[in-house]
């Protein structure tokens, strides 16, 4: 089943009377359970593409179907609900709330699902346990190392049981050892059946995904895949 | 969920204790000043109205004098004399009269009781007289009644000043026989009229019929007192009454001396008009002060939103709807203004009560100041105003926060 389906997606950035054509007709299909990386040099439009996939940003033309639902022209509230139910985000800069401890940070998506405090914390602790941070649950973000912060962020991305995990340079701020730790954690998540889209400029990481999508000047240039698993692209 | 949201807000407020406190103080001060000013204004109004004495504020009094304009072949300087038939004519021919009463005045005379005496103004009145002066309190006894008039009873109503001079403290004047210009009268009532700064209590009232029988003067009337019926324009009524009396006594329509009148509504209207002006001024100043507080809240909310832009972006990415962003921000500003405003209200009313209590306890009577108070409606209006304004203060920044896209928000540092 197709989890993500983009057809002819265009995106412009407008500053004053100038328009920058960032995405120039993206056609992209990602199947359920795939682990895909999006690569490209800076300015190629890969973050823009991920933001559109994450319903964090709109697009100017084309269509986007996520988990069988049209994502075009959602109102603020609907977009928020879609993000909350279908998507989990992992950011390069972690984006943890500095005044909340690890458990509270992980539990945040559940708060917006309307889950009660006790149940929220219980589930959050389970996921912190899963990423190996059971003892750090009451630590504030500034008491955690970079790798630990990203593991908290991964737990937060997973806690709401989303269908797709979107990771934007998740290891960009980490050393090589921690990078590998985080990557293997992502692969574990993928083994668990999640669809993962990973934006990176590190060939090393991309090579560990099933399929690589290369963006150049706002267009998908070539598709390569390394035979980690049999190709699933239709 | 609701409790969760509240905890979040209290947490944010605690993060910025000093800032929250200063902002809240602005609102507190605004409402406090508004309430104190309104109370002081009301205190002045009470004080000034108290100066009107026991007079109702709509009475009209008509009396006669010497003509100053020659009319229908009669020269000026003719004395006009009103009598009971004038009262009758006015009450029969002019509609819209609520109460009407004649009054005959003898002037000052000696009043004795046992070996004490007093000098008082002696008036003859019908029983309707105290309908006109309905605000005059009777400390003891009763007013004149129709039987006193019909049976020409020798009874008297005395003012408190007269009572104090004739009777020793603790002695009940009612039922005692006093002598009014050497004529024995039984005291049936003691009144206190604070008009004329209490000097209206230096009077003795006799039933009209008794007065005429004892002191003569047949059916002479010195003044006609009247009050318009509810809803009737007192000024129009005054004109009609004066015109009728002038016709009856052949006084030129433009003669101001022959028939005179005074309408209490004129000074009352002036004073009440003045207080409308003062009240407008007070609201203007008070609301201005309050506005300054509100602008402070709005300002702080703008800063809060700016500071928390990144946080808002993250929350949106994790599924916060625009409402769940706007709601807490509005609640935050409403909470700050609401609590601070309520405290301002309580402290303001408290201060007014304290002043009023102090004045009462000390027994002092300040000129033109009495019972500072704020009525319940004003308090409720102030609270509603506050909550509305609190919401408005948070609305603009909150909507701004709701509109910003998560991507933009997360880029903010």
Description:
The complex is a heterodimer of chains A (234) and B (413). Chain A has 234 residues and is of the alpha/beta class. Chain A has a single domain (2-224), classed as P-loop containing nucleotide triphosphate hydrolases (Rossmann fold, 3-Layer(aba) Sandwich). Helices cover 34% and strands 29% of the residues of chain A. Chain A has 7 helices and 10 strands. In chain A, the strands form 2 sheets. A 6-stranded mixed beta sheet of chain A has the order 6-7-8-3-9-10, sandwiched between helices. Chain A has a 4-stranded antiparallel beta sheet with strand order 2-1-4-5, with helices on one face. The model of chain A is unreliable at 225-234 (pLDDT under 50). Chain B is of the alpha+beta class. Chain B has 2 domains: 2-52 and 269-411, no CATH class; 60-263, no CATH class. In chain B, a hairpin with a 2-residue loop joins strand 7 (177-180) and strand 8. In chain B, helix 11 (322-362) packs antiparallel against helix 12 (376-403). In chain B, 36% of the residues are buried. The mean pLDDT of chain B is 86. Classes of the chains: A alpha/beta (234), B alpha+beta (413). Chain A binds chain B through residues 51, 54, 56-57, 76-77, 80-81, 83-85, 89, 91, 95, 97, 99, 108-109, 111-114, 116-117, 156, 160, and chain B through 1, 4, 11, 15, 310-311, 314-324, 402, 405-407, 410.
Short description:
The complex is a heterodimer of chains A (234) and B (413). By secondary structure, chain A is α/β, with parallel strands linked by helices. Chain A is built from seven helices and ten strands.
Separation, N- and C-terminal Cα atoms of chain A: 10 Å
Element pattern of chain A in H and E: EEEHEEHEHHHEHEHEE
Strands side by side in the biggest sheet of chain A = 6-7-8-3-9-10
**Strand proportion of chain B:** 15-25%
Q: Please give the CATH architecture of chain A.
A: 3-Layer(aba) Sandwich
Count of spatially separate domains of chain B: 2
Can you tell me the number of structural domains of chain A? 1
CA gyration radius of chain A, whole angstroms: 18 Å
């Amino acid at each position: 089943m197709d989890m993500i389906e983009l057809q002819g997606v265009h995106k412009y950035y407008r500053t004053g009377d100038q328009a920058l054509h960032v995405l120039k007709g993206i056609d992209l299909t990602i199947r359920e359970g795939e682990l895909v990386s999006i690569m490209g040099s800076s300015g190629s439009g890969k973050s823009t593409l991920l933001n559109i996939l994450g319903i964090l940003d709109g697009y100017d033309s084309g269509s986007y179907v996520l988990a069988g639902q049209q994502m075009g022209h959602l109102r603020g509230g609907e977009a928020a609900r879609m993000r909350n139910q279908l998507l989990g985000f992992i950011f390069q800069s972690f984006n943890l709330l500095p005044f909340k401890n690890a458990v509270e940070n992980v539990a945040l998506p559940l708060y917006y699902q309307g889950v009660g405090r006790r149940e929220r914390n219980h589930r959050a602790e389970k996921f912190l346990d899963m990423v190996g941070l059971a003892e750090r649950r009451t630590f504030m973000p500034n008491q955690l190392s970079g790798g630990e912060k990203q593991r908290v962020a991964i737990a937060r991305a997973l806690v709401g049981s989303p269908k797709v995990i979107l990771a934007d340079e998740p290891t960009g701020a980490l050393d090589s050892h921690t990078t590998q730790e985080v990557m293997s954690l992502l692969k574990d998540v993928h083994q668990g059946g999640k669809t993962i889209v990973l934006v990176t400029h590190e060939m090393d990481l991309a090579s560990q995904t099933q399929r690589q999508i290369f963006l150049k000047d706002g267009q998908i240039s070539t598709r390569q895949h390394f035979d980690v698993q049999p190709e699933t692209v239709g | 969920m609701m409790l969760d949201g509240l905890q979040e807000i209290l947490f944010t407020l605690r993060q910025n204790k000093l800032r929250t406190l200063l902002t809240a103080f602005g609102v507190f001060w605004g409402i406090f000043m508004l309430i104190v000013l309104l109370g002081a204004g009301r205190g002045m109004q009470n004080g000034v109205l108290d100066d009107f004495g026991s007079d109702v504020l709509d009475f009209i009094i008509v009396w006669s004098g010497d003509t100053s304009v020659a009319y229908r072949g009669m020269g000026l300087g003719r004395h006009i004399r009103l009598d009971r038939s004038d009262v009758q004519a006015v009450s029969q021919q002019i509609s819209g009269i609520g109460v009407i009463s004649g009054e005959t005045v003898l002037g000052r005379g000696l009043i004795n009781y046992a070996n004490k005496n007093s000098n008082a103004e002696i008036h003859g009145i019908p029983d309707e007289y105290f309908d006109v002066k309905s605000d005059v309190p009777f400390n003891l006894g009763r007013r004149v009644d129709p039987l006193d008039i019909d049976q020409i009873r020798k009874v008297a109503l005395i003012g408190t000043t007269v009572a104090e001079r004739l009777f020793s403290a603790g002695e009940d004047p009612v039922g005692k026989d006093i002598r009014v210009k050497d004529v024995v009268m039984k005291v049936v009532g003691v009144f206190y009229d604070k008009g004329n700064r209490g000097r209206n209590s230096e009077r003795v009232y006799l039933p009209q019929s008794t007065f005429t029988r004892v002191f003569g003067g047949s059916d002479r009337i010195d003044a006609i007192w009247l009050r318009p019926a509810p809803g009737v324009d007192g000024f129009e009524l005054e004109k009609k009454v004066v015109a009728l009396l002038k016709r009856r006594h052949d006084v030129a329509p433009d003669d101001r001396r022959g028939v005179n009148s005074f309408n209490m509504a004129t000074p009352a209207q002036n004073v009440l008009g003045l207080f409308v002006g003062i009240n407008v001024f007070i609201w203007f100043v008070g609301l201005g002060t309050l506005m300054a507080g509100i602008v402070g809240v709005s300002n702080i909310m703008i800063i809060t939103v700016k500071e928390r832009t990144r946080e808002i972006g993250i929350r949106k990415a994790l599924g916060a709807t625009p409402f769940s962003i706007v709601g807490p921000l509005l609640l935050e500003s409403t909470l700050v203004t609401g609590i601070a405003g309520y405290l301002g209200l309580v402290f303001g009313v408290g201060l007014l009560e304290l002043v009023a209590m102090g004045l009462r306890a000390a027994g002092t009577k300040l000129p033109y100041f009495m019972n500072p108070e704020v009525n319940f409606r004003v308090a409720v209006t102030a609270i509603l105003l506050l909550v509305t304004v609190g919401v408005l203060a948070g609305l603009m920044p909150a909507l701004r926060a709701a509109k910003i896209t998560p991507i933009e928000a997360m880029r903010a540092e």
